[in-house]
Amino acid sequence: MMIKNISCSTSADDDGKGRGYFYAIMTAVLCPCHLPVVGLFLGTGAAGAFFAENFIFLAIALGVLSLISFAAAVRLLL
Predict the structure, then answer these.
(1) 16 φψ region: left (φ > 0), alpha (ψ -120 to 50), beta (else)
(2) CA-CA distances (angstroms) from residue 64 to 27, 31, 67?
(3) Which domain holds residue 63?
(4) Is residue 7 part of a domain?
(5) Consecutive sets of 10 residues in the chain, 78 residues long: mean pLDDT of each?
(6) Which residues 6+ apart lie within 8 Å of 13 measured at CB?
(7) Is the pTM of this model over 0.85?
(8) Backbone phi, then psi, for 54, in 5-degree steps?
(9) What is the pLDDT, as a whole number, of residue 24?
(10) 38 domain residue, yes or no
(11) Which of 2, 3, 19, 66 is deepest in the core (most CB within 10 A)?
């Protein structure tokens, strides 16, 4: 007979919905289609120069991170 101790839960979010929503929000933030908008805000200054110099690298890196967070969100929410 299995007894589940509800009072000693290690996490307040047992079903993973909170983490799933976090990954879904991260997917929207990291999406490479938002890079031009970010470029407009970072157009001046050192961050803008770094952004302009490494645009392709940033687009690829953010694309991979976006796909990873999307897969994690789908796994946790569905």
Answers:
(1) left
(2) 10, 9, 5
(3) 14-77
(4) no
(5) 57 75 91 79 78 87 94 93
(6) 19
(7) no
(8) -115, 35
(9) 94
(10) yes
(11) 66
